[in-house]
Amino acid sequence: MSVQAWTYLLVGLSFALYIGIAIWSRVGSTKEFYVAGGGVHPVANGMATAADWMSAASFISMAGIISFAGYDGSVYLMGWTGGYVLLALLLAPYLRKFGKFTVPDFVGDRYYSDTARLVAVICAIFVSFTYVAGQMRGVGIVFSRFLEVDITTGVIIGMAIVFFYAVLGGMKGITYTQVAQYCVLIFAFMVPAIFISILLTGNAIPQLGFGSKLADGSGVYLLDKLDGLSTQLGFAPYTEGSKSTIDVFAITLALMVGTAGLPHVIVRFFTVPKVRDARRSAGWAILFIALLYTTAPAVASFARVNMIQTINGADMQGTEHATAPSWVRNWEKTGLITWDDKNNDGKMFYAKDDRNEMTIDRDIMVLANPEIARLPAWVIALVAAGGLAAALSTAAGLLLVISSAVSHDLLKKMVMPGITEKQELLYARIAAGCAVVVAGLLGIYPPGFVAEVVAFAFGLAAATFFPAIVLGIFDKRTNMQGAVAGMIVGLVFTVCYIVYFKGVFMAPMAENVPANWLFGISPEGIGVIGMLLNFVIAFGVSRMTPPPPQHVQDMVDDIRVPRGAGEATAAH
Question: Which of 372, 395, 419 is the last residue of a domain?
């Protein structure tokens, strides 16, 4: 069977599974729609959380960044993984004990204000739409290559699938769909990694193959080989970083606290029965995530070595006698690889300096990796199914956050408090449908490559939600005025900085060079400054204004005090 036939088969079977789960788990109440009824087992929730977390950025783009950036790409590994430790220890059990449906729900009740709730709704929608743009773009890339349709058509197909199981099943449908999607994506990521590790190093464990000698008998270590290739082609050594220490620290910290502040991740801990289960879910999620994250550096290195060795010097003249690998021609059709024969010798050459003739989108590296290594067609198709599973699982979680923010926090809590549960559920589904359409447009007209856009979403979450939640749990003196002022300042500062330097939503207004960065911090890490501003403003304003009502301070004390040695429920 051809790659396309295998892709249709595997993707079709996985989509049928997702739709079947959605039909089986269709919901009839708002509690099931928002938090899956609060009865998800910690292991299943950990698996669903891992799928929700390991988006197209993790599956498709992270290894691509590491493959091109080398050591500098390690910030994504450290930041995204470390964030779950923060989440498990600092936030998850307390938020579960609070027992609400959404993050804006927590902010609105904790800060006893519809204004605070509205600001949180705006932040949730802003962060979620920024994040979901990368997911829908990832869907389009997979479809454009493996099903040979254009990216726009691919995004529309992905929208239809997500619409079906997110609108019909809500959080209940999404949760059990994400369990299936995790199984698909981790299998799809590990199988080619194991194959290629054996081919390159003779070691079946990719994490060990990453530090092993090549299997060609040369006695050269893989990373030494990669350093040599990089320097010969004008790049910095692969194992050495070029970022400043402060920028590495800022990006890593922004990703960590951004993880702990992402609303679609936090809401997963509202779906378990007990407070203790929230922490257990986070532990299982870390384990499931580690399988992919410890493999990603190996995949990046394998892909980089194979890519350089198969491209440079390949003959691109004619069709019958060309020696260029088929994977280059296949990806050229998508426009994600282009070739400009500068010296008219008919041969491709990839380098950093003026000799370079290739433009390669880093988002293709994981998807193209099996083709570059000439693995069987079914493995190539399996990776396509895994990429779709990763993108769709996270997109669904984000769309539910947007839906619940509109229907529950905005309409039910503020605009139309008298609506019935049935009406609220209808509005939630309508909001989810509208969010799918907007997400699709962002996928068709994306504001950047996948992992870069996602990194911005983390910066925004770090600058808005994380301080409000931490202070809301651990500082009962923080009041409505402080929280609102802090979130607004954090959001406005971070958005303005990113837009100014990256032109995410408009043309760049300044050169994106370190000399112009505040304290030498790149846009990817600026969420740390936004977070610090939020903390300072919230803390300072709260001390200059009246304290929260006594019942709110008592509620904060109650959240922090264990009830029944971990057996507490959400009941108050």
Answer: 372
